[in-house]
């Protein structure tokens, strides 16, 4: 009786009686169940592989680690700000002849940095009577600033009948610029580490900040040697020279950047160096 009833599915195929349909459904269900179980197992395996890859890549970043990274990043940013302030200003060195070298009313002082130099005419009456040389450059007076020509035409600059050293000045400027580039790359690495929660980016960031700090200090040393060569180029006009506040910014920036890079390197280690060197004693092991 049941064999006389045939059912046509949506695709136009003839399906057998209910018993046959049940058998096909049962077989299909069994087959589907097997496929579903296989897919579930494969999916679980894939999920486990992803978890293992995620942990190996360094995604497991706790809130404490994120806070430490942000603190170290703040230290590095302080070094970057000091570097930009020092590189962008022209108060690296001040040059001043004796205040009575020209006349008894005015005297001439000069200060320059990596990019430009300034001469300033001061009133002798405004200078401290106990000071023998003209200055300091912060006193009010008529100032004239020009960019160095050895970056464009290759010409040296003459101040107080002394000639600047083009090669050393350009080398100091290029070291400072390359250090700024490394700071930018380190900042990008830290931003990627915080946004993607990947600890791996801390290692290249630490290298970038440490190298940038070293290059900043090297730029300062090369600049100082260029100043000494500048003073030795002519001895007609006696000059008193002193390093100014821009150099202090650069020196502090180099130290801060190196410290920031070391902090990133410590945070990138798979273990805490403090716990490795100073392990905590078990408080429960010393009981009576």
UniProtKB/TrEMBL annotation:
The keyword Transmembrane is assigned to this record: yes
Pfam families recorded: Claudin_2
Mode of membrane association: Multi-pass membrane protein
Keyword terms, alphabetized: Membrane, Transmembrane, Transmembrane helix
Domain of life from the UniProt record: Eukaryota
The keyword Lyase appears for this protein: no
Principal location listed in the UniProt entry: membrane
InterPro entries with a match to the protein in the record: PMP22/EMP/MP20/Claudin
Cellular component terms (Gene Ontology): L-type voltage-gated calcium channel complex
GO molecular function: calcium channel regulator activity
Segments passing through the bilayer: 71-93, 170-195, 207-231, 243-269
Entry's Gene Ontology BP terms: regulation of calcium ion transmembrane transport via high voltage-gated calcium channel
Subcellular localization: Membrane
Protein name according to UniProt: Voltage-dependent calcium channel gamma-6 subunit-like isoform X1
Annotated organism of origin: Parambassis ranga
Originating gene: LOC114449784
């Amino acid at each position: 009786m049941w064999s006389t009833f045939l059912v046509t599915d949506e695709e136009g195929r003839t399906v057998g009686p209910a018993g046959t349909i049940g058998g096909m459904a049962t077989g299909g269900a069994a087959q589907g169940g097997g496929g579903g179980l296989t897919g579930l197992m494969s999916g679980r395996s894939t999920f486990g592989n992803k978890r293992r890859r995620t942990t190996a890549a360094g995604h497991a970043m706790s809130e404490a680690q994120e806070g430490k990274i942000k603190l170290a990043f703040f230290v590095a940013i302080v070094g970057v700000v000091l570097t930009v302030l020092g590189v962008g200003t022209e108060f690296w060195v001040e040059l001043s002849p004796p205040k009575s070298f020209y006349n008894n009313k005015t005297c001439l002082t000069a200060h320059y940095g990596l990019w430009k130099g300034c001469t300033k005419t001061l009133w002798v009456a405004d200078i401290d009577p106990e000071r023998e040389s003209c200055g300091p450059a912060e006193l009010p007076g008529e100032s004239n600033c020009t960019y160095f020509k050895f970056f464009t035409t290759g010409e040296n600059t003459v101040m107080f009948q002394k000639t600047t050293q083009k090669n050393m000045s350009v080398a100091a400027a290029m070291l400072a610029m390359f250090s700024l580039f490394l700071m930018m790359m380190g900042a990008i690495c830290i931003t990627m580490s915080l946004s993607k929660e990947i600890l791996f980016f801390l290692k290249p960031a630490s290298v970038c900040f440490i190298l940038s700090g070293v290059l900043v200090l090297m730029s300062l040393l090369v600049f100082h040697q260029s100043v000494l060569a500048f003073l030795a180029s002519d001895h007609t006009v006696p000059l008193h020279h002193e390093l100014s506040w821009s150099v202090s910014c650069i020196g502090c920036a180099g130290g801060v950047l190196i410290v920031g890079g070391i902090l990133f390197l410590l945070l990138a280690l798979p273990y805490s160096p403090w716990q490795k060197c100073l392990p905590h004693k078990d408080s429960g092991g010393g009981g009576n």
